[in-house]
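Final report, closing paragraph on structural work. Over the funding period we assembled a curated collection of sequence-structure pairs, and we close with a single example.
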Amino acid sequence: GASGMSFVDTLLLHAPEPVSVTLLDKREQPGGHWNDAYDYVTLHQPARNYGVESTALEAFTQHPEKLASRDEILDYYRSLLSRWGEAGHRVSFVGGAAYDFGSASYVDASGSRVGVDASKVVDARYTENDLPLLVPPKFSVGDGVDLIPPNQLPARGAGEGRRYCVLGGGKTGQDAVLFLRQTLGVPLDRIAWVVPHLPWITARDPPSPLRQNTCIEFIASALEAHAAAGSPPSALSSSAFLQSAFAKLEEEGKVYRLLPGETPTKFMDATLNRREAELLRESAPSVIRGRGRVASLSSTGDLVFADGSELALPWANEGGRSAAELTTYVHCTAGAFNFGASAAEGRRPVFSSEGEITVQELFQFPGFCFNGAVVAWLECQRGLSLAQKNALCELPPPPEEGEAPPLGPVAGQVGPLSAGHPLLVS
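Its predicted structure, as stored:
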């Protein structure tokens, strides 16, 4: 995936001596989660923010805003294998393989077990995205309810008065609503969109200078707004400090809010241009907000929320048919950055004394590719001890212990600034 390919590329560029790399992946080709992404997905930031150190992704996309498509990204990662070989690097890729850490071996696509004699084992699965295609919803689903991942939207179409209920307000949900409106041409009165927490949206097309703020600049904006307001002490213990920065960035055209007049409470760096943001704002009559998360879909298609309240969709019982008979529900609630698989394994150091390296989320922004490259660059620094390398890989504090929320963790909440806040860690 993105983390592993970035690690290998930077390792090949900076290793003080020649290295040999075997890349294993459960998928048949490189590209990680892009193999499982929905067909209409693109990067939501320009391609220059993504990819590996040696090769610019921008050269592989035809999009006017350099928003590389799923197929372009997969082509890019396939080409890297060829480029590494042409440059004389010893890199082999084994698709359809599952590595067994306990026995230092892997099982290939044919079912054969192959031993591995490696001086270092790099686990780049730790930040594997949770995708609706692969991660089932946390809410229960009644019999007969038509619930699909966004991958299946293109095949459904808008014919025969089909209604849609999109569950989830993150980037996947935003993409689904935009696809329904722009590509399938579904009228607004046939869409319901459940948005548990209104998000701040990063502007992909901010005014000159044409770039987005770094995390440090964001904190600086918060400090400036805080000082301009007279530095009220109470702001630091509430969301007011960070919200003042978002308000300032909104004035500068660098962030958008989904619904005018309503203050967002969440930020996960979902990125849209002004035209896309305006199209989503037009969807305001279809947005179901302020009720929290859906806990279940009843067999009649009603929404049952975590607080026990219920809501029938606007077209329920139209023509004597239940909402479940009329509606396709779109599961966009997986929480891409929950990293469900690794969360179950527990925290580990990036560099271990047993020769294992675990690529992790050192920086939430700019993300996977950068993290993989940083960890590889540190691995190449022979003058650093194991302890020094780990000290430079300061990880966010582990989540508080306790029973996991039944509907999954809530990420990106705009709350008080604390030592473990993602914007500070980044």
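DSSP finds twelve helices and 19 strands in the chain. The chain has a mean pLDDT of 88. We thank the funder for supporting this effort.
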